[in-house]
Write a structure and sequence with these properties.
four-stranded antiparallel beta sheet, 25% strand, eleven-stranded mixed beta sheet, Aminopeptidase, alpha+beta, 15 strands, globular
C-alpha cells in the first residue's frame, strides 16, 4: 500500500508538503527551521550530518515525513552513545555511519514520524509500523544502527513493539501552574528556595543591569550580531567548536524571527549578555546563551527567571531549558523523562545494549522520583 523515498535536500520535498505533515506543533520540526540548518551549511558535506529526509507515500500522496540524517560521528545529538561506538569498534565492528532521526543540535522532544492530520488514527498506526520496517530495512542493509532521539513517549512505545530499544533520559522543565505573576510562582516554593531566588534577582537589580526583551521585528541587526557572538563564545568554552554558523543566525533573522525571543542584559549602556528562546505553541524553549562578563546570577536571570516571567504573562504552559542542568531544580524546574528509540542491527550487540538500557532506566526512574518527591523546590501539601 505504501512506498517511500529519501531526499538529500528538504527543498526537494517542498515547504507546503513538509509542513502539512509537521503541522505547527513544534517550531524545530518546521520546514523553515530545518531548511535554515541545511541552507546555512551547518549540516551537509564537510560536516558529520548528511541529510537524507524520509517521505512516505500513499500512492502518489506524501502522507508522512521524517527528519533523517546519515551520521558520521555522535556529535550534536545529546543522547550520548560514544560508549556504544567504542564497544562496537573494540568488537571489530564499524559503528559509523549510522542513521539519525532527530533535529540536529536540538534536544527538544517532538514527533519524529510526522504524519498528516487528515490521516485516520488506524492508518496512522499502519504508517508508524511501516516507518519502523523502513528504518530496520535501511539499517540492516547499510548501517550499524538507527537512533530516533527525543521522540514522544507514544512513538517509543510503538517502535518498541517493532524490536526498537527504548532509552529513557532526563531533562528539567518548568510548568506553569496557572500562576498570576512571578510572585505567585515564588509563593509556591519552599521558604528557602523563595529567599534564594529573591536574593539572586535582587543582586542583579542592585547592579543596575538593564534587562531588555525583544521578539520578532523588534530584534535589530546589531542584536543578531550580539547573539551570534555570545553563542560562539559559549560554544567554544563548552565544546571547543560551534555547531551553527553565522549564516544560520542570518536566516533566523530573515524568516524565523517571529518565533524568537531574545533577552538582553546591558550594563552602562553596553550589551553584556543575551539568552535566545524559541516560542512554540505551549512551550518556551531556551536555546542559546552567552556573556562577555562573569556576573554572578546573570545566567539564571536571563535563562530562567525572565523566561518564567514571560511564560506566566503570555500564559505558556512550559519552559524547557534544554539538556542537563540539575541546578535548575532549586529554581522551580522539575525532572521530566525524555525518550529515544534505537535499532541495533547486530543481534548480539542489540541484546547487550538492551541489558544496559534496562539498568540505566531503573537508575533514571529512581533519580526522577527522588528529585521530584524528596528534593522538590515546591511546598509539600
Amino acid at each position: 500500500m505504501y512506498s517511500y523515498k529519501t531526499y538529500n535536500k528538504i527543498s526537494s520535498i517542498g515547504k507546503k508538503k513538509w509542513d502539512l505533515c509537521a503541522k505547527n506543533s513544534n517550531p524545530f520540526l518546521s520546514y523553515t527551521f530545518l531548511n535554515n540548518i541545511e541552507e546555512s551549511k551547518s549540516i551537509g558535506p564537510g560536516t558529520s550530518w548528511l541529510a537524507n529526509y524520509l517521505c512516505i507515500f500513499d500512492k502518489k500522496e506524501i502522507i508522512a515525513v521524517a527528519p533523517m540524517y546519515i551520521k558520521l560521528d555522535s556529535q550534536g545529538e545529546y543522547v550520548f552513545d560514544h560508549t556504544w561506538a567504542n564497544a562496537y569498534y573494540n568488537a571489530g565492528g564499524k559503528y559509523y555511519p549510522k542513521l539519525q532521526i532527530s533535529v540536529p543540535f536540538t534536544p527538544v522532544t517532538g514527533n519524529r514520524i510526522l504524519i498528516k492530520d487528515s490521516i485516520a488514527l488506524e492508518k496512522k498506526n499502519e504508517v508508524t509500523n511501516y516507518f519502523a520496517k523502513i528504518i530496520i530495512n535501511i539499517t540492516e542493509n547499510n548501517f550499524s544502527s538507527a537512533h530516533i532521539t527525543f521522540c514522544t513517549k507514544q512513538e517509543s512505545i510503538a517502535l518498541n513493539k517493532n524490536t526498537f530499544l527504548t532509552r529513557i533520559g532526563e531533562q528539567f522543565h518548568w510548568k506553569n501552574d496557572n500562576y498570576l505573576n512571578f510572585n505567585d510562582f515564588l509563593n509556591s516554593l519552599t521558604s528557602r528556595k523563595r529567599k534564594s531566588i529573591s536574593k539572586e534577582r535582587k543582586y542583579i537589580k542592585e547592579k543596575n543591569i538593564e534587562i531588555i526583551l525583544k521578539s520578532g521585528k523588534e530584534i535589530e541587526d546589531v542584536d543578531w550580531d550580539y547573539m551570534y557572538d555570545f553563542y560562539i563564545n559559549t560554544s567554544e568554552k563548552k565544546w571547543g567548536n560551534a555547531y551553527l554558523n553565522k549564516d544560520f543566525f542570518k536566516l533566523l533573522k530573515k524568516n524565523f524571527s517571529n518565533k524568537i525571543l531574545i533577552i538582553f542584559a546591558k550594563e552602562s549602556g553596553e550589551t553584556i549578555a543575551a539568552a535566545m528562546h524559541i516560542m512554540g505553541n505551549k512551550s518556551l524553549y531556551g536555546r542559546y546563551w552567552g556573556s562577555i562578563k562573569n556576573i554572578k546570577y546573570l545566567h539564571f536571570e536571563l535563562c530562567y527567571y525572565q523566561a518564567i516571567e514571560w511564560a506566566i504573562v503570555n500564559k505558556y504552559k512550559f519552559v524547557e531549558g534544554g539538556a542537563q542542568g540539575p541546578h535548575k531544580i532549586q529554581r522551580g524546574y522539575l525532572a521530566a523523562k525524555t525518550y529515544s528509540s534505537h535499532y541495533i542491527a547486530n543481534i548480539n550487540f542489540r541484546n547487550a545494549i538492551k541489558d544496559f538500557l534496562n539498568k540505566e532506566k531503573e537508575i533514571i526512574n529512581n533519580d526522577i522520583q527522588t528529585i521530584n518527591q524528596e528534593f522538590t523546590p515546591f511546598k509539600k501539601n
